[in-house]
Amino acid sequence: MTTTLTSAVKPRAEDSFAITFAPLSLEEIYAKSDDPANGAVVVMSGMVRNQTDGKPVIALEYQAYEPMALRIFYQIAADIRLSMSDVNRVAIYHRVGRLQVGEISVLVAVGSPHRREAFEACQYAIDTLKHNAPIWKKEHWEDGSSTWVSIGACETSGENC
To answer: Angle at Cα 15 formed by Cα 14 and Cα 19, nearest 5°?
Structure first.
């Protein structure tokens, strides 16, 4: 699958996307991706961990260019449907603002009649989001310092961000 932004993709009514300051809810994202035709709902939850490369992290701060990030989310869902037509629902939510260790920063959920498509679509969605969406994070270290990191840079550098 390839992501292109040559034309504006409109989201489907059954899908759900957001960039938000509000805490993310596993139950809400599951409900938004559920459908009576589903045999599987796969949810990926990205959380703030307490270290990066062994260096203690106390918080992350996320910023996004929301209009473009949402367009990327819409395109991800459109790309999924081009290669996996059975997918019923796609939900992609990302937090912005300062998050503490253990808080959920991103939720991706895909509902499909079959688990294989749901897993593949969910993995494609999070990998593509991290590579293409204009979302940045600032790591706040235990020693009081901080560093901005582009999420896309994590993917291209091979780091496990």
So the answer is: 145
